[in-house]
Amino acid sequence: MKNKKISIRSYPTDINSSFLKGSSKAPPKIMEAFNSESTNKFSENGLNLGEKKIWSYYDSSTIPSGEKGFQLIRNSIKNDLDKNYQCISLGGDHSITYPIIDAYHDYFKNLNILHFDAHPDLYDNFDNNPFSHASPFARILEKKLSKRLIQIGIRTMNKEQQEQVDRFKVQVIDMLNFDPNIKLQFNGPVYISIDLDGLDPAFAPGVSHPEPGGLSTRDILQIISNIDVDVVGGDIVEYNPKKDLNNITAITAAKLLKELMGKCLIKLFKYPWK
């Protein structure tokens, strides 16, 4: 436990994006907002993330295409987990979640995934690409890499993806039935995947697939805060700086990063504000 810290990994790839490219430019923009002097480094649960000894940032300048790129992601995550680090990854598009969870499965056999998104990302083969950013959870579930997938914020469900929901027994909390006071119960560790288009465009305009009627930043933060089991990692994906307005989405992503870090680490510190 003494070595436990956060490893922030940059995976700047949008090769599996289906509509607009641009999310490959996201990680440095998010880290710039995270390190800005406009705010301090205290998470809402009182953890001082200004202490560099409890986190490190690793910038992958390029990610190769295809299986070579996925293997690079797997290996880097496994390297961190071998050191008892918890990993938070910055995309890039949502395709990165599949190799990340593939790596996590070697360490967490009973992993739950909490997924915030406007889209289920369960297509079996989107645009003739089974590894599309619209398909990562199909790959994860068919390989049985997670025992439970909960999706929150969905508002684009179609027949094909509903069939996948039924096939894999995914728990979907769509926006039509969303309760901001929801408290989820988990049996086992949780990995959190945040696609920024799960947020309403008012809070995150800088995405390639904006879908009105979404979550607020506070909705996501409150749900994460209410989790009462270990959060062992996460990712923040699909930020497209080319579509952003006044860096609103970068600032929001940085806030989500800070609170994910705080949630992952809080149990290690009896008095986090010190």
Kindly describe this structure.
Strands 2-1-3-8-7-4-5-6 form an eight-stranded parallel beta sheet, with helices on both faces. It has seven helices and eight strands; from the N terminus they run βαβαβαβαβαββαβα. The chain has a single domain (6-268), classed as Ureohydrolase domain (Arginase, Chain A), CATH 3.40.800. It has helices at 26-34, 66-82, 97-104, 136-142, 159-168, 217-225, 248-265, and strands spanning 6-11, 55-59, 86-91, 112-116, 148-154, 171-174, 190-195, 231-237. It starts with 5 loop residues before the first strand and ends in a 9-residue tail after the last helix. It is globular. β1, α1 (26-34) and β2 form a beta-alpha-beta unit. α1 packs across α7, α2 (66-82) packs across α3 (97-104) and α3 (97-104) packs parallel to α4 (136-142). The protein is 28% helix and 17% strand.
Q: How many strand elements? A: 8
CATH level 4 superfamily: Ureohydrolase domain
Kindly report the average pLDDT value. Answer: 94
- SSE string, helix = H, strand = E? EHEHEHEHEHEEHEH
The termini sit apart by 19 Å
Rg over C-alpha atoms, rounded to the nearest angstrom: 17 Å
What global shape is seen? globular
> What is the assembly state of the chains in this entry?
single chain
